[in-house]
Design a protein that fits this description.
The chain is of the alpha+beta class. The chain has a domain of 73 residues: HIT-like (HIT family, subunit A). It contains 3 helices and 5 strands. A 5-stranded antiparallel β-sheet has the order 1-2-3-5-4, covered by helices on one side. The structure holds guanosine-5'-monophosphate (5GP) and zinc ion (ZN). The site of guanosine-5'-monophosphate has 13 residues, from strand 2.
């Protein structure tokens, strides 16, 4: 998608601090972290939100959840949230599916 900021991160045309990746998904630091750990996990392919991802490519959603869980186990003590804002009125601002991993329990605290 031409004007999608997360597609640009996937393409490498805008920078991000990547913390993990698979063939289907990438994980990177949120540019405006709201917790000591704040990672975004996205599918490489564009889907507008997690519901569309679940319906259109369930295997990619499983891959995303597995990558997110691995990053959470590396960066937190095992206490974290994995959330998907879905729809503008629920706080979604970037319309490329993404999960937020947030935690106030970084692994080295
Ligand atoms: P949403 O509000 O859609 O659930 O979450 C979008 C998230 O993307 C926000 O937490 C915001 O800080 C993050 N974000 C927006 N633009 C960029 C960017 O260019 N790079 C990175 N790393 N994060 C971004
Ligand atoms: Zn996109």
């Amino acid at each position: 998608m031409i004007d999608c900021i997360f597609c640009k991160i996937v393409a490498g045309s805008i920078p991000a601090t990547i913390v993990g990746e698979t063939e289907r998904s990438i994980a990177f630091q949120d540019v405006q972290p709201r917790q000591p750990v704040h990672i975004l996990v996205i599918p490489r392919q564009h889907h507008a939100n997690v519901a569309e991802l679940a319906n259109n490519d369930p295997e990619a959603l499983v891959d995303l959840m597995q990558l997110g869980s691995r990053i959470a186990s590396e960066q937190t003590t095992g206490h974290f949230r994995f959330t998907f804002n879905t729809g503008e009125l629920a706080g979604q601002t970037v319309f490329h599916a993404h999960g937020h991993i947030t935690s106030n329990q970084p692994v080295n605290s």
